[in-house]
Design a protein that fits this description.
This protein is mostly helical. It has one domain. The protein contains two helices and no strands. The radius of gyration is 14 Å and the shape is flat. The relative contact order is 0.14.
Length: about 60
């Protein structure tokens, strides 16, 4: 939400457009983070867990 490269308002605009189009999407705001959020272990753990869940949900646990 404090990213100077990818502005939060632009992320919200994208989310709104995806909703209008009826698209399924995941959105994980990181309130205290800038563009280098993955440098914090607790944020990296959350983001990687969300990515894993996304692939398992859309490709299946055993997809190859």
């Amino acid at each position: 939400m404090r990213d100077g490269i990818v502005l939060f308002k632009d992320s919200l605009t994208l989310a709104e457009k995806l909703m209008l189009l009826g698209k399924d999407f995941d959105f994980v705001p990181l309130p205290s983070s800038g563009h280098n959020a993955m440098r914090r272990d607790y944020i990296a753990a959350l983001v990687l867990r969300k990515i894993t869940q996304h692939f398992e949900r859309h490709l299946g646990r055993d997809a190859r």
